[in-house]
Amino acid sequence: MLLVVLLKVVVAAALLLAITLVWLELRHRLRPASPLRLSAGSFTVEGHPDWIRVSGDVTIRNPHRRMEVFVPELDLHPTLLGRGDLGGVRLRTHVEALHPDEETRPDGYWAAYIVKSRKSTRARLSLEASAEPGTDLQALLDTLWLEVRWVNYGPFGRIWRRDGILIPLRRPTPLEGASAPWRAGDRCQVLPVRTHLLGTLDDPETVLRHYAGGLVQPGDVLTIGETPLAVMQGRYHHPETVTPSGLARLLCRVFHPTSSLATACGMQSLIDLVGPARVLGAWLIGTALKLIGFKGWFYRLAGDQARLIDDVTGTTPPYDQTIVLGPDQPEDFCARMAEALGIAVAVVDVNDLGRVKVLAASRGCDEALLQRALRPNPAGNANERTPLVVVRPA
Fold it and tell me: Angle 170-173-176 (CA atoms, 0-180°, nearest 5)?
């Protein structure tokens, strides 16, 4: 009799859990959200010792088949990164609406605009930085972080969006093979490759060819950090654009304070990727297994992104203000780059504690070689700006 009662209790608990998971998933998937997406085109940089001008276009698309969304506000908030005191640098920004069905206002005022279903509009963004005569801006400035703050207004309410566009104002000269500072490793040679600060305006293949194409030879392995690849794919967002659910606020409290899932926005970012049912289910099963001595199952069940999300301060400026997700489809990326460059390519996650994780690698890549070569973390974890590392067997 007792066994029958216990069985009924277990069945009832399992049924209640299943209903809860289905309810959470449906509530998450059916919640109202803005369909608008902002993407940046190419930007031009004109330089002079006393001034620098930057201009480029952004496109706002509405892929929804029925919903129409208002864009009542759009403004620019630039941040300059440089190699000295930037207090004397003056900034002037301008937004020019390029709507397909309205004339451009000469005064630069952004009039509220409706982006209809399956339609798009554009805007031209420009910025001029100037300083006192005698100030060499080209030597002082390094990078422009141009944040577009815009409002979406529709059935989902009124929400602010923040899209950061990174525009390099100077780029390092690619290394040459004869003068490259190779480092001796464990039965291999290692070469960290410096690049400019990478962003969504960069094409990954172009970056690899430009900075490493003249250095590699058959048998080499070219690695790229998972975070630089993710930011080139646009997989980052500002925490202000995240609305933490009750589940995210609750679950984040049980993670170690140094974890990227220990904040409500970090946890919600994972929930938005894989769904609340998977996250809650992974936590319940992972906690149960942890009680009997099996650790790490939450991350296995929640998926790779659970380990790869970098919360605020987890990456180099200006991405230290954002939440950076793991890269999208790194296996396909490695296969395409290996075919394009003729060498093995790998996406890696390395830290100063000697941990080396190969997220993805092209066919035939020697992962044991990568473990030996990357354990000292030759790329560094600070602001070295060496996202690429060439590994050459001894």
Answer: 170
Provide DSSP, 24-82.
Answer: HHHHHHTS-----EEEEEEEEEEE-SSEEEEEEEEEEEE--SS--EEE--EEEEEEEEE
pLDDT tens sequence across 225-238: 999 999 999 999 99
Q: Is 221 left (phi over 0), alpha (psi -120 to 50) or beta?
A: beta
Answer yes or no: CATH 2.60.40 is held by domain 37-168. Answer: yes
Contact call for residues 352 and 376 (beta carbons, < 8 A): no
Give the residue among 235, 236, 184, 174 at the shortest CA–CA distance from 210.
174
- Strands 113-115 and 188-193, by their bridges, are unpaired
Strand 344-350 to strand 221-225: parallel, antiparallel, or no bridges (unpaired)? parallel
| The pair of three-digit structure tokens given for residue 326, joined into one six-digit string | 């793991």
Q: How many CB atoms lie within 10 A of CB 343?
A: 19
Write down the architecture of domain 177-234+326-393 according to CATH: 2-Layer Sandwich (3.30)
pTM: 0.91
Give the pLDDT of residue 338.
96
Domain residue spans of the chain: 37-168, 177-234+326-393, 236-324
Indicate the Cα dihedral angle 245, 246, 249, 253, nearest 10°: -140
Instruction: Report the distance separating Cα 44 and Cα 32, nearest Å.
Output: 37
* Residues 341, 249 contacting (CB under 8 angstroms): no
Residue pair 392/191 in contact (Cβ under 8 Å)? The answer is yes
Cis peptide bond prior to 318, omega within 30° of 0: yes
Closest CA to 325 of 226, 248, 244: 226
Of the candidates 168, 137, 158, the residue with the CA atom closest to the CA atom of residue 44: 168
- How would residue 382 be classed by pLDDT, with cut points 50, 70 and 90? low
Gyration radius of the chain's alpha carbons: 24
